[in-house]
Amino acid sequence: MYSIHSVDFNLNAKSTFEMKDGSSVCFMEYYEKKYNKKLTNPQQPLIIHKRKKDGGLIHLIPELCVLTGQSDDMRQNFQLQKDLNQLIKPRPQQRLEEAQRLLQILAENDKTKEMLKKWDIATSLDPLKVEGLKIEAGNIILGRQQSFSLEITPDFDRKVQTEMLEQQEIKRIGVFYSSRDKETLRTFMDTLQKCVETFNYPMGQPKEFAIEGKSYDDWEKVMKANLNPSVQAVILLLPGRKKNGMHYDEIKRFLLTQCPVPSQVVLVSTIQAGKNLRSIINKVLIQICAKVGGTPWSVSEFPLTDKPTSVVGIDVFHRTSMRSNSLLAYCATMNKHLSRYWSTIDQHGPGEELGKGIQTAVKNSLLAFKETNGMFPQRLIVFRDGVSDSQRKTLLEIEVKGFLRAFDELRSEGLEKNPEFIFICANKRINSKFFQGDSLQREGLRNPDQGTVVSDEITTNQDFYLISQKTNQGSASPTHYYILSYYHYEGEDYVDSAEDLPEPLKRQIQILTYKMCYMYYNWSGSIRVPAPIQYAHKLSNLIGDRWKPNVNMIPHKVYEKYKSLYFI
Description:
Oligomer: single chain
Strand content: 15-25%
């Protein structure tokens, strides 16, 4: 699969290129001899793809290329997406029937029967029946002591658009826009003012800054002239389509690395469309609140928070564009609502041990917790994303030991006793599916309810499956969690008892995991993994997706002091 970088009209299908043996051949002749493809248009220009690895050019014949993916118009076509989802996202009953048909074919084919017998593999058309437990999510907590049930409120999205739990006052905020979009700015500002009144948000009047030119340099010049440490947030009205706003990457890089001010981008096309604009700006205000250190909402009765507790999310970013480098993203809660985060991101080159980065992040996060709360956390619960079964031993040797070394290092900083330490691996890339109901009954199978946990028969004492998200289309995908370590004191000894995990503690971990899935402020409802994991993933992708060799993209150290979700 290739992305199109340009079209070279100076070359065509009759142009020649050099083979590995040094001989020259034209594209038409090459494809006919090599692939038996006879090109019909010798004058067609060549498509150019630039390799990320070394910048080399690959020439493609348009006649042999087929566009892949969906256009923006296709994605916005409701009926098309509905029909497509019926094909690629089968419902539980349909998925089971398709699996049973495949198993029937395998059972009736002589060659596959012989192979299954040789490997001593037995199959059954009937799915395995296991017991599941439904966990209750509890209530969402908002400002002015408002609360409502997380699971039985159909208009969740509308309900959260009200005064938030902790609304950080914003005295100085700026709005940057292109001078060509002045009318759009007025629409945005009028709607923002109405939203501020609805939320009763303590925000001063945003100051407006017009950009006269079209280039990125014009934007940077105005931002440099007007931004300073006293500015708490900026809003950027950018032309362009979703995820492709004009100068988005350059502006984000500038505000992350050179001028550390939390920023929120709103596309001009979104405002001009006018559809659900009030609801969209309400969500923008919720995100701004989180970015400046506020708490949009929390969840009632978090377990395992009876003493000072920090919940951590870790994600490691790998991408071929970064070659052998990787990014470690670490996000740790700083308050009782488990809503404010200290975060950091660390680059690792080839041969560098990840444990050292973990050790530094743990030490600094615990010091930040002490600075915020006047004491170190007495319990540390870690969710580590993207861990397969084969990687657990490596995590024990590198990452878990990185935490333990950090605890030892903090003795000189006043840590008298190690915190209770729980390390949980999360894996979304699994093939397991769970269905609820009876396939023989008229109603057939359906997706399990949100909050369904499976932790018997197909699991050990250390792991469980959780379906946390609501699935309206297709079949629900569970996430697999494995409790890798549970360090605590037995007398004077600091020991790992993960293999003998008490059942009540395991149940509390399951409940906390589910409740934390409702704490992601980019979504109204529950997501597939706990919020700390998703925040770490968001941070690592924000940096990793825009990574360029020899161009700094690591956020300014000032962001660590903000203790906010500036990157969402």
